[in-house]
């Protein structure tokens, strides 16, 4: 799925006059324009979906936003402010304008602007997912390459099962079991939360990423405490990432190892290590980037389940709390941000794939 | 007798549609049974279905029967998987939970697969603007994070198992539409389609009677492979409290209840998790095996 070019961009590209096709500069520009149109269309689609979920699906959208305990005046004010007396198209236009100016409404449960809330919680998620993808790449890629080079061996079978387990284990369950085992029993890692309580609020937030902020402030003790707490949730995310990455790497490598040029290299007496890393591994780097991008985007999504378990004050926790409080502005804001980042990462890896792969250019 | 039946089944020139279909089923079953993982997968799914049907006979207790004197007992002879905080037998709840899982999975497949099939086939068959608009919408849905979309939908629809099913179905159809479109494009211009059209068949008749049946095998593979994801999403919704509501013995919701006891009474949360993992793995194994048999081109990249 990830490797199919979008139909929309094909449609725009094929609609262009042929005369321009000869000039590579113009073609690149047109390709770029087509790509931007696709991306814009996708984001507009995301907005349409959140708008639909917020305004059309609930029986009373005002109630969904202000909550059922709101006084009459607040209800009426919200109703007017949402422009519910206007036709849907006008409402959608206003919604898009609001989102583009960064206005996501006010959260009922925190009483603050949703946009500010999201800015505050997003770094925690970013930190966890980034560490997760690093674990996934560092372990998953070598595992996949090794499994492919020893196809059918016991290690290969084990790696295949690990890959499938990534599809079968509920993330929240793995987090719970990990907490019971590695935190409660073995005391190898820190418990829920980003820091031990007595370290809380000691580091001034600069980037919001504790690992970087603590280094800026020169607090190595807090730095290690943050790692201590990050270790388990990031490993759980890392497991799902490595399962996927190892599975895909293995299948890409098997494709390459079956090619004739690999046989040629072997016949010429190139050592197996060189055959694998220089000849077979090089060409899979480009599709691997797409896989890693997809996995990273998936981790941002997966953090929603993990954060609840680890009381991680990130966007996932914010979203689930909002869900349970029926705090619709917060739900839609978080959905919008996660969706936008998800789409953004996917599109970027798509671009990278096209730029790096000579065949797709 | 058996040899003649077998010869009839593997006949190269079947004389009836029934014989051709049974023969194909025979060959697929044969190929599947040579793949050990696929056999394991099929066995797991079979056990799941049998468990769901015969739940009252397999369970040792009532799934909702509380006994506050028997709270949080460790797994033992009387309670094979222990008891939860209300003294309910976890084994019996897991057994009845198979029914809920099966209903969710079946309902999502029944809702999402035909919808995706028809949208994809229509887009591929008509082409042009129909194709562009339908596939544009499909692509927008495909690029959304599924779990988040399902969460937001359930938030708007309200918690509950029916709404969870609807939300998961809404997030699942685009993948099927993509496949159906690709398959339709490959044989849209073949002679047998042209022949039917020359006989005056309407577009609807061509699509329903001749295009869709050819998409089914790749669709079955994809749906089977998707089942694990559907089960995990449903369990996740249940875990957050938006899916099946208490006291229903849904596996995800059971894990959520066991969360508070995970440090001392680990079995409350872990046991339903094992059920989820085994069933999801079963669908993965079977899906992988089916793909090798029915759709060998697509390889690992699903």
UniProtKB/TrEMBL annotation, chain A:
Q: Where in the numbering of this chain does the ABC transmembrane type-1 domain appear?
A: 122-349
Q: What GO terms fall under cellular component here?
A: plasma membrane
Q: Which GO terms describe its molecular function?
A: dipeptide transmembrane transporter activity
Q: Where in the cell is it found?
A: Cell membrane
Q: Which domain of life is it from?
A: Bacteria
Q: Name where it mostly resides.
A: membrane
Family stated for the protein in its record: Belongs to the binding-protein-dependent transport system permease family.
Q: What is this protein called?
A: ABC transporter permease
Organism, as annotated:
Mesorhizobium zhangyense
Automatic annotation (TrEMBL), chain B:
Does the keyword Transcription regulation feature in the UniProt annotation? no
Q: What is its main location?
A: membrane
Sequence intervals crossing the membrane: 37-59, 100-126, 147-172, 192-215, 227-246, 266-287
Q: Which InterPro entries match?
A: BP-dependent_transpt_permease, MetI-like, MetI-like_sf, OppC_N
Instruction: Tell me the compartments it is located in.
Output: Cell membrane
Name the Pfam families on file.
Answer: BPD_transp_1, OppC_N
User: Which GO biological process entries does UniProt record here?
Assistant: peptide transport; protein transport; transmembrane transport
Topology in membrane: Multi-pass membrane protein
The record's annotation in CDD domains points to: TM_PBP2
Q: Does the keyword Membrane apply?
A: yes
Gene Ontology CC annotations of this record: plasma membrane
Keywords from the UniProt entry: Cell membrane, Membrane, Peptide transport, Protein transport, Transmembrane, Transmembrane helix, Transport
The similarity comment for this entry is:
Belongs to the binding-protein-dependent transport system permease family.
Under which name does UniProt file this protein?
ABC transporter permease
Q: Which organism is it from?
A: Mesorhizobium zhangyense
């Amino acid at each position: 799925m990830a490797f199919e070019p979008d139909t929309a961009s094909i449609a725009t590209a094929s609609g262009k006059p042929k005369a321009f096709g000869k000039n590579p500069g113009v073609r690149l520009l047109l390709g770029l324009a087509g790509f931007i149109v696709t991306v814009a269309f996708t984001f507009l689609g995301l907005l349409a979906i959140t708008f639909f979920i917020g305004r059309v699906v609930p029986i009373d959208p005002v109630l969904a936003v202000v909550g059922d305990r709101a006084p009459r005046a607040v209800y009426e004010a919200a109703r007017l402010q949402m422009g519910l007396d206007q036709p849907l198209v006008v409402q959608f236009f206003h919604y898009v304008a609001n989102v583009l100016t960064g206005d996501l409404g006010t959260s009922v449960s925190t009483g603050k602007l949703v946009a500010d809330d999201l800015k505050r919680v997003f770094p925690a998620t970013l930190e966890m997912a980034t560490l997760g993808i690093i674990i996934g790449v560092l372990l998953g890629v070598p595992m996949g390459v090794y499994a492919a080079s020893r196809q059918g061996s016991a290690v290969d079978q084990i790696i295949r099962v690990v890959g499938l387990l990534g599809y079968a284990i509920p993330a929240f369950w793995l987090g719970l079991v990990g907490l019971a085992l590695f935190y409660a029993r073995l005391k190898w890692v820190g418990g829920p939360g980003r820091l031990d309580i007595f370290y809380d609020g000691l580091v001034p937030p600069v980037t919001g990423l504790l690992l970087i902020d603590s280094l800026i402030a020169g607090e190595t003790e807090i730095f290690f405490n943050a790692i201590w707490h990050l270790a388990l949730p990031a490993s759980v995310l890392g497991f799902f990432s490595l399962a996927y990455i190892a599975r895909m790497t293995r299948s890409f490598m098997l494709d390459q190892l079956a090619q004739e040029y690999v046989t040629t290299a072997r016949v010429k007496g190139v050592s197996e290590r060189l055959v694998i890393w220089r000849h077979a591994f090089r060409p899979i780097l480009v599709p691997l980037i797409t896989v890693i991008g997809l996995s990273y985007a998936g981790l941002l999504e997966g953090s929603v389940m993990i954060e609840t378990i680890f009381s991680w004050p990130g966007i996932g926790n914010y979203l689930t709390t909002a869900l349970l409080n029926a705090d619709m502005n917060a739900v839609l804001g978080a959905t919008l941000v996660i969706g936008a980042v998800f789409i953004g990462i996917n599109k970027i890896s798509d671009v990278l794939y096209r730029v790096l792969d000579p065949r797709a250019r | 007798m058996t040899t003649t039946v077998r010869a009839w089944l593997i006949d190269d020139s079947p004389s009836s549609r029934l014989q051709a279909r049974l023969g194909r089923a025979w060959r697929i079953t044969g190929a599947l049974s040579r793949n050990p993982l696929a056999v394991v997968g099929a066995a797991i799914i079979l056990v799941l279905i049998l468990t769901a049907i015969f739940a009252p006979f397999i369970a040792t207790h009532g799934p909702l029967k509380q006994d506050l004197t028997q709270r949080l007992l460790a797994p033992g002879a009387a309670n094979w998987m222990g008891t939860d905080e209300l003294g309910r037998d976890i084994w019996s709840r897991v057994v009845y939970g198979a029914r809920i899982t099966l209903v969710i999975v079946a309902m999502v497949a029944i809702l999402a697969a035909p919808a995706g099939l028809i949208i994809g086939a229509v887009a591929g068959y008509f082409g042009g603007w129909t194709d562009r608009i339908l596939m544009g919408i499909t692509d927008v849905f495909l690029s959304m994070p599924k779990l988040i979309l399902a969460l937001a939908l359930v938030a708007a629809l309200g918690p509950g198992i029916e709404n969870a099913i609807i939300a998961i179905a809404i997030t699942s159809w685009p993948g099927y539409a993509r496949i159906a479109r690709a398959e339709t494009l490959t044989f849209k211009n073949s002679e047998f389609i042209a022949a039917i059209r020359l006989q005056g068949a309407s577009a609807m008749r061509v699509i329903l009677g001749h295009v869709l049946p050819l998409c089914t095998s790749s669709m079955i593979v994809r749906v089977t492979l998707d089942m694990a994801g559907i089960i995990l999403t449903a369990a996740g919704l249940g875990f957050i409290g938006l899916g099946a509501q208490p006291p229903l013995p849904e596996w995800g919701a059971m894990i959520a209840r066991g969360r508070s006891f995970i440090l001392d009474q680990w079995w409350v949360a872990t046991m339903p998790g094992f059920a989820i993992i085994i069933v999801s793995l079963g669908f993965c194994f079977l899906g992988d095996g089916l793909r090798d048999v029915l759709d060998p081109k697509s390889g690992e990249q699903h």
